[in-house]
Design goal:
12 helices, two-stranded antiparallel ribbon, alpha/beta, 389 residues
């Protein structure tokens, strides 16, 4: 349960619960025989979330959160400093809260994806902090505001890919220990997105004593995804990863097109707010060195990881994850597929685990119109709602 200081009052909690009840989609995938059970599950979920909000009722009403920035040395490399953003309920110190959440970004875009305001003016971090959690995101090495290794200032083809999951989980160790010390919590909740589910999952599999609950949003784990492998393969040897170089660049049009391609053309304006896209991409461009101010740069170590993952060769053991785990994805996500998510879910050793599918959502669901569903489901899980009657 989240800490009692700085959580929203009853009116705010019930508003969130009402929003959730309106938008909530059934848990898991739908079959004809499941419809009645899934309707009951959705109603129960909304009721439990209302109960969870009611439990927070005595807390003082907080209309906003406050942000602070930190730079943490990597526990694996003194030359690497990791950017960490903290968001707390206004007027509350980290030590006042009994739960902490660390958001972990994916393959291409840094942690600002978790703190980009949506159409209603609130980011995922805002929603989480208002619910009474000490909330953080980090930028992995080579991303966003964290240290850019020298190879990123050299031609990409001159160097090998860097910043694979095996490396960055060692960086994460220092950030997680920083959060534990700053808040006084023994265990931190992790929320990973896309490749961030790989790094979060790998870290948890090896350090479950430091993790309370794990959320795997838009997960990739072990599945044959031909769309991805064909784009990464060597043209002369399709069974081999191409020479991808140290890093890649993404411009505005490429980012826009990748996202738009996952949404039915007639629904593009309904699913995605153009102003949110522009704000998100502009924030990322502002983090780039002056010479790269029109593109986002990202390390290519992740492409080596994805080559293995999308050839059905997992790079960590989900069977070693025993902490409560939520697997959640958008139904229209072509990268984090249902088959891959179900395979991951089956492998988890956690006694408490849940798989949620949200309709009309792409790989970028956290920035889309149904983001409130994602936020509410995550808060319900982090608050331990599954165990309520």
């Amino acid at each position: 349960m989240a800490g009692t200081s700085g959580a929203p009052a009853l009116a705010q909690g019930l508003a969130v619960a009402a929003e959730f009840a309106v938008y909530a989609s059934p848990v898991g995938s739908v079959t004809a025989n499941d419809k009645e059970m899934l309707m009951l599950a959705s109603c129960r979920t909304a009721l439990v979330f209302t109960t969870f909000a009611t439990m927070l009722a005595p807390m003082s009403l907080l209309a906003q959160t406050v942000m602070q920035e930190h730079r943490i040395k990597s526990s694996a490399d003194d030359a690497i400093e990791l950017y960490v953003r903290e968001r707390l309920p206004d007027g509350v110190s980290p030590a006042d809260l009994s739960e902490a959440v660390l958001f972990v970004h994916g393959a291409t875009y840094p942690g600002i994806s978790f703190d980009t305001d949506l159409a209603d003016g609130k980011s995922w971090m805002d929603h989480t902090a208002e619910a009474g959690f000490a909330t953080y995101y980090l930028d992995q090495r080579g991303y966003g505001n964290s240290t850019r290794p020298e190879v990123m200032a050299q031609p990409s083809e001159d160097n090998a890919p860097f910043a694979r999951a095996e490396t960055v989980i060692d960086d994460m160790e220092g950030v997680i220990d920083f959060i534990r010390e700053r808040t006084g919590v023994d265990r931190v909740n992790l929320v990973g997105w896309s490749w961030g589910t790989v790094t979060s999952g790998m870290y948890t599999a090896r350090n479950d004593e430091k993790v309370d609950r794990l959320v795997l949003f838009a997960p990739v784990y072990s599945h044959r995804n031909q769309n991805w492998t064909s784009s990464l393969a060597d043209a002369n040897d399709p069974g081999k990863l191409a020479d991808v170089g140290a890093y890649r660049t993404v411009n505005r049009d490429q980012a826009d097109q990748r996202w738009a391609n996952q949404i039915p053309p007639e629904a593009l304006e309904q699913w995605r707010d153009r102003a949110v896209f522009d704000s998100w991409f502009n924030e990322m461009l502002a983090m780039e060195p002056a010479e790269d101010s029109d593109v986002v740069k990202a390390p290519n170590g992740v492409l080596v990881d994805l080559w293995e993952i999308f050839n059905a060769r997992p790079i960590y053991e989900a069977s070693r994850i025993s902490v409560p785990t939520l697997v959640i994805r958008g139904d229209d996500d072509p990268t984090a597929t249902d088959a891959d998510a179900r395979g991951l879910f089956a492998e988890l050793a956690a006694e408490e685990k849940r798989y949620v599918v949200i309709g009309e959502g792409s790989h970028f669901l956290n920035l889309e119109k149904h983001a409130p569903q994602l936020f509410a489901e995550t808060l319900l899980f982090l608050g331990g709602g599954e165990g309520q009657p």
